[in-house]
Amino acid sequence: VTGPEAVLDTPLLTHELGSLDKPGWRVKAYAGARLEEADIEEARAWGKRLDVPDHEALIELLRTAPLDEDGRAEVRRWSSRYGMRLLESAGLDVVYDGEQQRSEMYAWAVANANGFEWRGSVRAFDNKYYSKAAVTGPVSLREPYHNAEFSFLRPIARATLKVPITGAYTIADWSFDERFLTVRDLSRPAAERRGARHQARRAFVLEVARNLIRPNLEALIGLGATWIQIDEPGASTDRQELDLFVESFNIAVDGLDAVFSTHLCFSDYDLFFPAIEAMHGCRQFAVGFANYDGRELGRTAEARPGYAVIERFRDLPSRPVLGLGVLDIHTNFIEPPELVRDRILYAVEVFGDPSRIHVTPDCGLRTRSWAVAYQKLVNMVAGVSLAKREFGLA
Amino acid sequence: VTGPVVAYQHGIFPRSEDVVAATRGLERGRVTQHDVDERYDVDLEIFIRTQQEAGLDYYSDGMLRWDDVFRPLVEACSGLEARALIRWFDNNSFFRAPEVLSALRTDAGMARLVPSPGVPEPRLACLPSPYLFSRAADVRGDRNALMREIASHLLRPAVETLVERGCHLIHLQEPWLAYFGIEPDDWEVFERALGELREAAPAERATLVLHTYFGDVAPFADRLRGLPVDAIGVDAVETDLASLRGPWKTGLLIGCLDGRSSVIEAVDPSVRLMRNVAEALEPSALYLSSNCELEFLPSEVAARKVFRLGEIARAVKEAR
Questions:
Q1: Over the range A169-196, which residues count as b (16 or more CB within 10 Å of their CB) and which as e?
Q2: Tens digits of residue pLDDT in B131-157
Q3: Using alpha carbons only, what angle is made at residue B195 by residues B190 and B201, rounded to the nearest 5 degrees?
Q4: Which of B87, B96, B272, B301 to mutate to test binding with chain A, by most A CBs within 10 Å of its CB?
């Protein structure tokens, strides 16, 4: 299996979706702090466990903390190596680096864009927060913000690379608008205010797609990226704006020479239909389902309530692949291989074709420890092996 | 407005950057729970001071420790468990859906819902409305039956406890009705469920407010103002106030500050809006607040909104 098209056609292909937690040694060293022996031992243990080449060089570097700017950048690259090796070691077919070189999926993009100002932290759920910015001026790309990591990873990757990149709709949706919407007087007629709000949203989202995402994609493709996953966890936030999400995706990718997929999560997925039928350039939809599913074994619709919507993805006219989320990333529960197997078998039964099913976690695993994330992924790969046996694919 | 004009801040207030850092540090083993608790205490002090300096009429604890609007109730109830993460309407914010496992029992009591003694009186407390709770829950079966059970066995004891412990205003969050609507057959059950809470918070002891938001409730106005509460809250960002008809027999809460926008509203247009509402609808009492909880904003921006709420309320009161 070589080219991206052939990879896409691989039945039950396994891949991760994005971010991993940042290990303590990476966080502390990058923050310019001194490390404790436990942090260094963690780096050593994982380096050995994951067979990270030359990881003793990292240990020596960490012992010199606090680090200067060059040292901190080197630690970030080591973290990137470790992240990729974790995914490769778990047995995944398609990998990246757990986004170890980025601050966070939204913050990294905004920090490399013009036109935004930071406003502060906002909660996503429980004790999880993200830094939120406001758009205050014209949006443009300050500099391509995934080039350095991709150039670093490409020569050292053992598995196929897929670059995750945050999409236009999500960036706009996760930002405050202090530029585009100008009619804010609530004593104005409601219809006038709604119209102004719709126009402002459209202008904002499409400006991000055109002036930030697309040039960044072009830069990656110029470096040899062949599969780019556009992450859109915010895509279904507003059920009135699904068409806008689709339009922004198409504007970002149309005519570009790469395989594009998208990742959707934690939504009422029914909302996406029929709007996403117009995403002709999207070859794979990677979608989280396990969060909504039961933990009992079983291959029937009754046993798999979290996967009720997958037939709608099956029926999309462009026949895209479904990246089937089988790991709940919000709990430390380690899915047994048999549970993963049953989720896959149910999906294959619905689709009638294993080549249209890929297997993934629900989302990035950054809210889990590496120990939990690793074991979840190992079990996911084991579950795929069990499923393949049933089809004679093993 | 012939009745009172009252301003208060409802819902979960955002945690400060210090609490955010502390909770993150706790997860990474860098700080202790004691450190986190101290940060929470500082946040509470600041939020109380903010409300006082803004000149608000009721004081909240900001629900600073609530992980979502259901969580402490779920944790106090042996028949519920907080599990799947679900998007909180059209926000980049999620709640854990209360999963119904068995009959609801609150043997452990409701003490954790009660605001800290440091919150000055008069106090307000916020709870999810029974309709919202029954629709957001993960349950197989009759959601109206669940609404009745939630009202009787969970929210009623919660309201009784809160009123007993000095909360003189009970604010019920009801975004589901505004965002998704309600079937005609559900109104009667909803009205009875609210009636249970009315009994637990009789008018002479507490004000009961049902606040709708995240949608335009003008189509439901006639049913809403017949519900057994003291005031109905509407989201002025989403609701077409011009289509509401007066006289509005009950009180009316106008959510006039956009809890999802970082832009701070100007005073004059907000006062003009209140004047228009008062003239057109003639509510028995006028309540002012944000359209939704402020937790979608960074804490500093949210605090500025609270100060602005106080300025608007002062101007409205002076204009009476």
A1: bbbbbbbbbbbbbeebebbeebeebbeb
A2: 999 999 999 899 999 999 999 999 999
A3: 130
A4: B87
Amino acid symbol at A329: I
Closest CB from B239, B258, B276 relative to A187: B276
| Contact call for residues A109 and A171 (beta carbons, < 8 A) | yes
Residue whose structure tokens are 């380690």: A334
- Burial class of residue A254 in the structure, from the number of CB atoms within 10 Å of its CB (0-12 exposed, 13-18 middle, 19+ buried): exposed
B297, closest residue in chain A (CA to CA): A122
Chain A contacts of B299, Cβ < 8 Å? 120-121
What does the block give as tokens for B249? 């027999």
Which H, E and C letters describe A187-209, residue by residue?
CCCHHHHHHHHHHHHHHHHHHHH
The two tokens of residue B255 are 């959510």
pLDDT digits (tens, 9 = 90+) for A26-72: 999 998 889 999 999 999 999 999 999 999 999 999 999 999 999 99
* Residue at B148: amino acid letter: R
Query: Distance from A310 to chain B by nearest Cα, in Å?
Result: 18
Closest C-alpha among A81, A104, A88 to residue A15: A88
Tokens coding B287: 């309540």
Q: What does the DSSP assignment read for A213-273?
A: IHHHHHHHHHTT--EEEEE-TTTTSSGGGHHHHHHHHHHHHTT-SSEEEEEE-SS-GGGGT
B111 min Cα distance to partner chain A (Å): 21
Name the nearest CA neighbour of B231 among B257, B212, B205: B212
Chain A interface includes B264 (CB < 8 A):
no
Helix, coil or strand: residue B25: helix
Report yes or no on whether pTM surpasses 0.90.
yes
Q: Do A119 and B295 touch (CB under 8 A)?
A: no
> Does residue B91 sit at the A interface (CB-CB below 8 Å)?
yes
Please, is B320 exposed, middle or buried when counting C-beta atoms within 10 Å of its C-beta (0-12, 13-18, 19+)? exposed
Tokens (6 digits) for B258:
């956009």
- Round to the nearest angstrom and report the end-to-end CA distance of chain B: 7
Taking the C-alpha atoms of residue A393 and residue B135, their distance in angstroms, rounded to an integer, is 43
Tally of residues, chain A: 394
